[in-house]
Amino acid sequence: MDLMNRVFKDFLDSFVIVFIDDILIYSKTEAEHEEHLHQVLETLRANKLYVKFSKCEFWLRKVTFLGHVVSSEGVSVDPAKIEAVTNWPRPSTVSEIRSFLGLAGYYRRFVEDFSRIASPLTQLTRKGTPFVWSPACERSFQELKQKLVTAPVLTVPDGSGNFVIYSDASKKGLGCVLMQQGKVVAYASRQLKIHEQNYPTHDLELAAVVFALKIWRHYLYGEKIQIYTDHKSLKYFFTQKELNMRQRRWLELVKDYDCEILYHPGKANVVADALSRKVAHSAALITKQTPLLRDFERAEIAVSVGEVTAQLAQLTVQPTLRQKIIAAQLDDPYLAEKRRVVETEQGEGFSISSDDGLMFEGRLCVPEDSAVKTELLTEAHSSPFTMHPGSTKMYQDLRSVYWWRGMKRDVADFVSRCLVCQQVKAPRQHPAGLLQPLSVPGWKWESVSMDFITGLPKTLRGYTVIWVVVDRLTKSAHFVPGKSTYTASKWGQLYMTEIVRLHGVPVSIISDRDARFTSKFWKGLQLALGTRLDFSTAFHPQTDGQTERLNQILEDMLRACVLEFSGSWDSHLHLMEFAYNNSYQATIGMAPFEALYGKCCRSPVCWGEVGEQRMLGPELVQTTNAAIQKIRARMLTAQSRQKSYADVRRKDLEFEVGDMVFLKVAPMKGVLRFAKKGKLSPRFVGPFEILERIGPVAYRLALPPSFAAVHDVFHISMLRKYVADPTHVVDFEPLQVSENLSYEEQPVEVLAREVKKLRSREIPLVKILWQNHGVEEATWEKEEDMRAQYPELFED
Predict the structure, then answer these.
(1) What is the mean pLDDT of residues 218-234?
(2) Scanning 180, 330, 570, 770, which has its CA 20 to 30 A from the CA of 203?
(3) pLDDT at 14
(4) What is the mean pLDDT of residues 449-460?
(5) Which residues, including other chains, have CB under 8 Å from residue 166's CB and lie 6 or more apart?
(6) What residues contact 565, with CB distance under 8 A and at least 6 apart?
(7) Could you tell me the pLDDT band of residue 556, with boundaries at 50, 70 and 90?
(8) 449, 541 Cβ separation under 8 angstroms
């Protein structure tokens, strides 16, 4: 078809229509048709394309094309195709209904009110609907056949514009008719979607107009249109001052067209108003409807009664929660006494409702220590209609309908003991644990901190890593480039040549738990040198905040280097080190270079006097000691200031040995599920027992074997206290958590398969059961992606 379109591109939609290998040539006169035919045949010859003469027809007054008969009168359905519909046997399965509707729907533009007529059949195709062939389905089936046999001849738009649209809407669907010069061009209709059934009348009528403009855009765009509706207020839609968001969105669409909305009374709008508005008000329905509404009113459920669109076939009546509460009131001594007072005299605030329920200020009284109160709290918190609200929201929802003593306290206690809320809800309070500043070192390069910046672009020398080493006293630093393939012994060699050679062996090293720092070689080297290793707690980088902050500064320098200078980043790394060490540090009140060497560093923009300056030994020692004491005092002042600021946004929290706590995790890191990475999985796992307190804000936990790769000491901000409840069924089977405290979901089984059919392709899908989740949480994934990522899942 692409070849045919390219060959006849100059003639398409002028006098030629091409569909795959079929060529349709149309003209207004015989002379014009002869010229058009000659041009088409010459074009075929020029492109060395051939047509079989026996399959050609010339000089036709009527032609059958794509299931339609096209003539000078207009377009009508192909009788041969309609014969297949009229001879169609009664469907016995959902698939057969879909096949019938698919063929009949191809000609829906010829059938007025197609969606209304086909409504009983389309309802049978909905998921979960039992297949019951009712009389309504039979009438729909036969009426569609009859409508297609007697389908009218639709006119073909002549290009003169001046289209007229008749639109109408009801509680069942939208209907519209496109006309030109008094002749019908096409019919269109559809059923309302679920959310559209709640639209007010004005929006429904406007939706019918928008539906017509969208479906016939290829006819209407750029043409003058008159739209007739039986809803008078739509006349003023373009001048209406206040519009809701939906109407504003539709206004933008309608303004694309040169249209005028006119009022046409409903009785005169007989074409579009054919959408049936019949209401099944039977005596039986009215008889059953009234008591049901009274029950809803007693339960204080607001009921809005509109047009009746279905009959109630069967209703199973069970005791309502309200009835259970009223029955339980008789067993509560306090409420029984209040009922006696109300029945004998006027009780202050208490009263008896029409269904014999004890009320307080218009709210139903709930008995203390009763099963119905627990059932009520569970329904208000865990049902599909509430979805685990917080205590404040839940209390406000309940207090408008129910009352009992200590209600707010009970609601807060119930929410705090909810196992699901403890595992999935993010903490909204200040983080736990007050700031614990590290001690200030006594001398230069006595205590250092270090970290790695990884994942950098590979340079010509193969460097992808920067090792950042910082003196905690003077803030002076060294940036050492390296490769991700370096072994622990190679890093040890660089440590000796780049750090120890210049500053000697430090007393202590603060770092995170990177594999390079926890390796046996590194620990053995530092033990031999007499250096103490101080590791940060698991997943709490604030312990080594100095190096983490310097990493951010260095990364900003690297970004600036990429933009400003040519070459690889490693060729400028020594200049970045110089720039950092020669820049002012607010904590110590001077540049790191000055703190380290006792004087400012000369640079192209900052220089001192050139000449010989001598300082005697005692004076040098005294000056250096004074500088160190000044730096230490400034650091202590800065730490005190930072602690006062930080503690305002933190809370002091302590746990006891033996307490059970949840552990914060990063769920399903890097795994795509529910179209979002990890957003629908628990934030906390556990609970785990606290074995030991390590320092003021760290605790050792009893972790299961699957957490063997994770260090068992955690900062208090990673923990959440477990509030126990006898009803909890805790799954102590641990997740497979990786070293970085994240866990990947693994598929367990393929539960089902289906093919999603799009307009131009099909997408095979598989329903996957995931580890750590039940069948109800199984998800549909692309089979192609799952086969690529988990081939073992599809092995026999």
Answers:
(1) 84
(2) 180
(3) 78
(4) 82
(5) 176, 177, 179, 228, 264, 269, 271, 272
(6) 572
(7) low
(8) no
Distance separating alpha carbons of residues 502 and 495, to the nearest angstrom: 10
* Domain residue ranges in the chain: 1-59, 155-276, 320-417, 447-602, 659-743, 747-793
- Average pLDDT for residues 586-603, to the nearest whole number? 73
Place of tokens 């006349």: 235
**Domain 155-276 -> CATH class:** alpha beta
**387 backbone dihedrals φ, ψ, rounded to 5°:** 60, 55
| Mean of pLDDT values over 764-790 | 79
**pLDDT tops 60 at residue 396:** yes
What is the average per-residue pLDDT within 610-615? 47
This prediction has a pTM of 0.35
Nearest by Cα to 743 from 791, 687, 788, 678: 678
Alpha-carbon span 615 to 617, nearest angstrom: 7
| Burial of 527: CB neighbours in 10 Å, binned 0-12, 13-18, 19+ | exposed
Helix axes 333-344, 321-329, angle to 10 degrees: 80
Query: Of all residues in the chain, what percent carry a pLDDT higher than 90?
Result: 0
The pLDDT value recorded for residue 466 is: 86
Tens digits of residue pLDDT in 665-689: 654 433 333 233 344 456 667 778 8
Nearest Cα residue to 211 out of 154, 183, 173, 266: 173
What is the CATH architecture assignment of 447-602? 2-Layer Sandwich (3.30)
CATH 1.10.8 fits 320-417, yes or no: no
Q: Token pair for residue 779? A: 């998800």
Q: Which value, to the nearest 10 degrees, does the dihedral of the CA atoms of residues 153, 158, 163, 166 take?
A: 0
Token pair for residue 106?
Answer: 């191809």
The structure tokens 């009546």 sit at 317
* Equal CATH topology for 155-276 and 747-793: no
| 91-100, 390-399, 565-574, 670-679: range with lowest mean pLDDT | 670-679
The secondary structure element, H or E, covering residue 693 is strand 684-694
- Say whether 522 sits in a helix, a strand or coil: helix
Residues 6+ apart with CB under 8 A from 160: 180, 181
In our burial notation (b when 16+ CB lie closer than 10 A, e otherwise), range 634-656 reads bbeebbeeeeeeeeeebeebeee
**pLDDT tens digits, 138-192:** 888 888 777 766 655 566 677 677 888 888 888 778 888 887 776 777 777 788 8
CATH architecture of 747-793: Beta Barrel (2.40)
Q: Give pLDDT, residue 229.
A: 85
Tokens of 212: 């017509």
Q: Helical H runs in 446-544?
A: 488-495, 501-503, 515-518, 520-529
Q: Which residues contact 507 (CB under 8 A, 6 or more apart)?
A: 441, 446, 447, 531, 532
What DSSP letter does each residue of 141-210 carry, written as one string? HHHHHHHHHTPPPBPPP-S---EEEEEEE-SSEEEEEEEETTEEEEEEEEEPPTGGGGS-HHHHHHHHHH
Handedness of CA 84, 86, 88, 94 (dihedral sign): positive
Distance of CA 153 to the CA centre of its chain: 48
Segment 237-257, tens digit of pLDDT = 877 778 888 888 888 888 888
Amino acid at 750: V
The DSSP output letter for 461 is: T
Choose among 393, 371, 571, 392: nearest CA to 479. 571
